[in-house]
Amino acid sequence: MATPATVLCLNAGPSTHEPPMNDLLARLESALFAPWPADRRPWLGRLRVFLRYVYALIRDLLTGDHNLRAMSLVYTTLLSVVPLVAFALSVLKGLGLHHDLVPLLAEMLRPLGDHATDLAQRLVAVVDRLQGRLIGTVGFAVLIFNSMAAIQKIEESFNHIWNVPRLRGAGRRIGEYLGVLIVGPVVIVTTFGVASGLASHSGSDWLREHTPLAPVLAVIHGAAPWGLTCLALAFLYAFVPNTTVRARVALTAGLVTGVVWVAAGFAFANLGAYSTRMMAVYASFAITLLTLTWLWLSWLILLLGCQLAFYLQNPRYLRTGRRLLVASPRLAERLALSTMIEAASAFQAGSAKPTLAGLAERFDVASGVLTPIVDCLERTGLLVETADGALVPGRAPGTIGLAAIVGAIRDGTDTEHTSLCEALTLDRADAASDGLEQAIEAHFADRTLLDLLDR
What are phi and psi of 40, to 5 degrees? Predict the structure, then answer.
């Protein structure tokens, strides 16, 4: 029976010379991830699973690079906020919806307290003054480039969390990013506008005053903006990473992140209202510091929500966390053969071609584990990736020997280091290794990829 791809070959337990804190963390990790007896109380088991996610997220926050990436995204936000708002304003002006942009920005900056509306109005005023200069063809092209570069930076951070080393192809990137830039502002502003319109409609007022459902309607009215925020976050978690994210996973992560973001915004607003000492020391610069701090906190929460989505879809990585995951040599050979079979089968049948993200989902491994294997097959000409990300055989399946596939993987899938192929090894060791190579070649003699296809 084949070994399941989900088995992780972890190192042995902690060294006896570990510091006390590391020993404490090792004990906590062992308590959370050790096998759970079936006769224990079920609710304790569910609590233990919940604590695994909490432990993994806190561990990644303390030991990972989420904080650095959040600060990098704050810098990106400051550089791209004017181009993004200018592009959104250009799109919305054509539809007559640009007046709704200020309330939407103020809602996003609500944790800044009384400064939110003023900051939103100033931002839109700056963009409005720049509109005349950006109407030209060159200026508009620069505007689009800066906006797309900001989205690409977000995709890079999300891909890092999902262990996906590749960005979208250039063609997909341009088409999908432009789609988001054009359709996104219209959908968001329209949705918030419809929600506000329904809330202020006379029929809604009558229902609130004359039906016993008034408390329910009040709760719905208050929760509608946050519900839309959760849906927007779920869309980001499903769309931005260059991999397949299940809808249920994206919705769950979006809901949890939205709740945490709202709670953090409420706490931040109250803290800002009572931080009179900051206002006295920094004077007019206080709003700048508050804005930067809130942007950093927002991005940090957003990245942790993306990490939660990764763990929800890949719970087997809760224990390993951000450790570098690579396939064992045996698993790498099996994944290479499986990848070639899937690509050749689709090619022969004329059906939808597999993609790297789809194959990672199919084989139940992270994309980062499969990527170096696919790269190795591409370097040897056994596999070709098309412009739209589809994987097809490099030549006819009947001309691809199984020994060539296994040999390509045995020559190494590590692209991070320069491979050393020769050394002064012992003659007896060389003879034993040559015998193993001959046995492999004899086993795969005259067998091609075509022999493994369903015909």
Answer: -75, 165
Residue 361 and residue 246: Cα distance in Å, rounded? 10
Looking at the fold, whether 207 and 289 belong to one and the same domain comes out as yes
SS3 416: coil
Structural domain count of the chain: 3
Euclidean distance between CA atoms 251 and 237, whole angstroms: 8
- For residue 137, what are the domain limits? 66-317
Does 415 share its domain with 267?
no
pLDDT of residue 303: 93
Q: How far is CA 113 from the centre of its chain?
A: 31
Does a structural domain hold residue 305? yes
Give the pLDDT score at 14. 44
Residue whose C-alpha is closest to residue 340's, from 392, 389, 404: 392
What is the model's pTM?
A: 0.68
Alpha-helical regions (H) of 162-246: 170-200, 202-210, 214-239
Q: Are the C-beta atoms of 85 and 173 separated by less than 8 Å?
A: no
Shared domain check, 410 and 288: no
* CB 313, CB 246: distance < 8 Å: yes
Q: Are 377 and 276 in the same domain?
A: no
Do 376 and 306 fall into the same domain? no
Give the model's confidence band at 17: pLDDT under 50 very low, under 70 low, under 90 confident, else very high: very low
Q: What is the DSSP letter of 331?
A: H
pLDDT in tens, 322-335: 666 788 888 998 99
* Distance, CA of 33 to chain centre: 25
Whether 13 is in a domain gets the answer: no
| Enclosing H/E stretch for 348 | helix 329-349
3-state secondary structure of 420: coil
Residue 3 included in any domain = no
If DSSP states are collapsed to H, E and C, what string results for 58-108? HHHHHHCCHHHHHHHHHHHHHHHHHHHHHHHHHHHHHHCCHHHHHHHHHHH
CATH number at residue 399: 1.10.10.10
Task: List, as own/partner pairs, every contact residues 442-446 make where C-beta atoms lie below 8 angstroms and the sequence separation is at least 24, other chains included.
Answer: 444/401, 444/402, 444/403, 444/406, 445/403
Segment 33-76, tens digit of pLDDT: 776 665 567 777 788 888 889 988 988 888 878 888 999 888 88
